[in-house]
C-alpha cells in the first residue's frame, strides 16, 4: 500500500511529518503501537490515516471531552463519518449515534473510558467490529501520575470484549518508567515504539531561584510583568502546589482560580472565562490540565516545584501551541521539596487494603445498585478516610478485583480477597513511593543544575534526537520574546 498516496487522497498532505510514516505503517499492519510525540507534532494523524485504511470501526478513547468535537469535525471534513459518545451528548444524540453505529454508517467513534464501561456500548461496538482501538493521553494509565484516570485500567478487559483489535497508545512523552507502565497496564503485545523527540524550539525554559515566600511573590510579579501580563494581560497559567496557594494568589493578583475543591460549576465557569480571554491569568493546581488547548498561551509559571519531570513537561507544554515564542518559568525555593515529599505519600498497609475491600463488599450489598456503589456512601461506613479508600480501590482495580464504574462509583468484581494479594499490593505501594521520591530528586536536580534545561529533559526521557532549531533556556543565554 502506498501510504503517501493515501495521505494525499485522505487529507491532501504531500508528505509525512517526522515519525508519522513509521507509526502509520505499524498501525496499518495491525501491530500494537506506542506513539510519543510532543504537542503539535501531528499525533492525531498517526491513528486517523490507519483508521481510515483498516477494516471496521476505529474506536478512540480519550479523557479530553473538550477536544472531541474538534477532532470529530476534522474527520468529517476528511469525509469520515464520525460520532461522539460522552457526557456532553443529549439522550437523543446518543440514540442517534447508536443507530448510525448499528447500521454500519460510522467509521470513527470518539468516547471516554467512563462511557465505554457501559455494557451496551461495548456490545454494540463488538457487533459491528472494531478494527483499531486508540488510547489517547496514554500516560493517564500511570497510577502515580497526577493525570491518572482509574477508568483507564479497565481498557484491557474492554479490548478483549471487542475481540482484541490492535491498539495504538498516544501521548506527548513518557519516561522509561511510564513507558513500561503503559506497556504493562494496557497489556500491549510487543509494541512498536515511535518516539520523535521532545524539543519545542519556541519555548524558553527558565528557573528562578527564590529564598523566601516574600521573594517568590516578588519574582512571580516580575515574571508576569516580563511578558507584560499585568499591563497587557497576555494569557498565562500559574501552577500552584496547593489549593490554598491558588486561592491566595488569585485573590492577590486578581486572576481566575481553578482547583479540585471548587464546585464543578465554578470550575467550568472559570475555565470558560479563561478560554474566552478574560481575565487572562489562571492560578490553578494540576487539576487544570488535560483538555486545555489554548493556542495563544504565552507563559506557564510553576509557583511551586512539580512532583516529577513528566508532570513539569506536560504542564509547561501547554504554552505556545500556536508556535509563537513563549516562556516557561519555574520559581524554585528549596523549601518546596518538603511540601512535595508530603504529597509523595508512602506505603499502604495490607490491612488497610483488606479493610477497603471489606467496605466495598458491605457497601455493595447494603447500599449498592446493580453491583455498584458511590464512594461518598462508603466513606461514612469505613474506618478509613475517603482519600485512603480511593487509593486502595485504585490499587485493587489494577488487579481486576474492583473496577471504577464512573461518576465516583465502584464495582465489586471479586468477593473474596486473599491476604497474600493484599501483601503484594502493599509491596507495590512501597515501590511506587520510592519511585516518587526518585522522581522528586530528579526534579530538584533539574532545578539546581547548570546544564542546558532542554538537554536535561532529553536525557531524562531517553531522547538523543534534537530539532534543527535552537532551543531556548536560561542556562544557554538565549533570549526569547513574547511573540514572533
Task: Outline the structure in words.
GO terms for molecular function: 3'-5' DNA helicase activity; ATP binding; DNA binding; four-way junction helicase activity; hydrolase activity; metal ion binding. The chain is α/β, with parallel strands linked by helices. It has 3 domains: 3-195, Rossmann fold; 203-342 and 452-473, P-loop containing nucleotide triphosphate hydrolases (Rossmann fold); 350-434, Winged helix-like DNA-binding domain superfamily/Winged helix DNA-binding domain (Arc Repressor Mutant, subunit A). 45% of the residues lie in helices and 15% in strands. The protein has a 7-stranded parallel sheet with strand order 3-4-2-5-6-1-7, sandwiched between helices. The radius of gyration is 23 Å and the shape is globular. Mean pLDDT is 87; it is low at 479-484.
Largest sheet strand order: 3-4-2-5-6-1-7
What integer value in Å does the Rg equal? 23 Å
Helix proportion range? 40-55%
Strand content: 15-25%
Structural class: alpha/beta
| CATH second-level architecture of the largest domain | 3-Layer(aba) Sandwich
CATH class of the largest domain: Alpha Beta
Estimate the global geometry from the Cα principal axes. globular
* Quantity of strands, as a count: 17
Organism: Rhodopirellula islandica
Family: Belongs to the helicase family. RecQ subfamily.
InterPro entries: DEAD/DEAH_box_helicase_dom, DNA/RNA_helicase_DEAH_CS, DNA_helicase_ATP-dep_RecQ, Helicase_ATP-bd, Helicase_C-like, P-loop_NTPase, RecQ_Zn-bd, WH-like_DNA-bd_sf
Pfam family, one: DEAD
Amino acid at each position: 500500500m502506498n501510504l503517501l498516496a493515501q495521505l494525499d487522497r485522505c487529507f491532501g498532505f504531500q508528505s509525512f511529518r517526522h515519525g508519522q510514516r513509521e507509526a502509520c505503517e505499524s498501525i496499518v499492519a495491525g501491530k500494537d503501537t506506542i506513539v510519543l510525540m510532543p504537542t503539535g507534532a501531528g499525533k492525531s494523524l498517526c491513528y486517523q490515516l490507519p483508521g481510515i485504511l483498516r477494516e471496521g470501526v476505529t474506536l478512540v478513547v480519550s479523557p479530553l471531552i473538550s477536544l472531541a468535537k474538534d477532532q470529530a469535525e476534522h474527520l468529517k471534513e476528511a469525509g469520515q463519518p464520525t460520532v461522539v459518545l460522552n457526557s456532553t451528548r443529549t439522550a437523543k444524540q446518543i440514540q442517534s449515534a447508536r443507530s448510525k453505529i448499528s447500521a454500519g454508517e460510522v467509521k470513527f467513534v470518539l468516547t471516554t473510558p467512563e462511557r465505554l464501561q457501559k455494557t451496551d456500548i461495548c456490545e454494540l461496538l463488538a457487533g459491528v467490529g472494531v478494527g483499531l482501538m486508540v488510547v489517547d493521553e496514554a500516560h493517564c494509565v500511570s497510577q502515580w501520575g497526577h493525570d491518572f484516570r482509574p477508568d483507564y485500567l479497565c481498557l484491557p478487559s474492554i479490548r478483549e470484549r471487542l475481540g482484541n483489535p490492535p491498539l495504538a497508545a498516544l501521548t506527548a512523552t513518557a519516561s522509561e518508567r511510564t513507558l513500561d507502565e503503559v506497556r504493562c497496564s494496557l497489556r500491549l503485545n510487543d509494541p512498536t515504539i515511535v518516539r520523535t523527540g521532545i524539543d519545542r524550539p519556541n519555548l524558553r525554559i527558565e528557573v528562578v531561584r527564590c529564598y523566601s515566600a516574600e521573594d517568590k511573590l516578588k519574582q512571580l510579579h516580575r515574571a508576569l510583568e516580563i511578558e507584560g501580563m499585568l499591563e497587557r494581560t497576555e494569557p498565562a497559567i500559574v501552577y500552584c502546589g496547593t489549593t490554598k496557594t491558588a486561592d491566595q494568589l488569585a485573590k492577590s493578583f486578581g486572576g481566575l482560580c481553578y482547583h479540585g475543591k471548587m464546585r464543578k460549576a465554578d470550575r467550568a465557569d472559570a475555565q470558560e472565562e479563561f478560554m474566552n480571554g478574560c481575565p487572562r491569568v489562571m492560578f490553578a493546581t494540576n487539576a487544570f490540565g488535560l483538555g486545555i488547548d489554548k493556542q495563544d498561551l504565552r507563559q506557564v509559571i510553576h509557583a511551586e516545584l512539580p512532583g516529577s519531570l513528566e508532570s513539569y513537561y506536560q504542564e509547561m507544554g501547554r504554552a505556545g501551541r500556536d508556535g509563537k515564542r513563549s516562556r516557561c518559568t519555574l520559581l524554585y525555593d528549596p523549601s518546596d521539596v518538603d511540601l512535595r515529599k508530603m504529597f509523595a505519600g508512602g506505603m499502604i498497609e495490607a490491612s488497610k487494603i483488606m479493610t477497603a475491600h471489606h467496605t466495598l463488599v458491605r457497601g455493595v450489598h447494603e447500599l449498592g445498585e446493580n453491583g455498584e456503589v458511590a464512594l461518598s456512601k462508603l466513606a461514612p461506613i469505613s474506618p478509613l478516610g475517603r482519600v485512603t479508600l480511593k487509593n486502595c480501590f485504585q490499587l485493587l482495580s489494577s488487579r481486576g478485583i474492583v473496577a471504577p464504574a464512573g461518576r465516583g462509583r465502584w464495582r465489586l468484581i471479586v468477593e473474596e480477597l486473599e491476604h497474600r494479594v493484599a501483601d503484594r499490593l502493599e509491596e507495590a505501594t512501597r515501590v511506587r513511593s520510592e519511585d516518587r521520591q526518585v522522581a522528586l530528586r530528579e526534579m530538584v536536580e533539574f532545578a539546581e543544575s547548570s546544564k542546558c534545561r532542554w538537554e536535561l529533559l532529553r536525557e531524562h526521557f531517553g531522547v538523543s534526537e534534537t530539532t534543527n532549531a535552537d532551543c531556548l533556556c536560561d542556562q544557554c543565554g538565549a533570549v526569547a520574546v513574547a511573540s514572533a
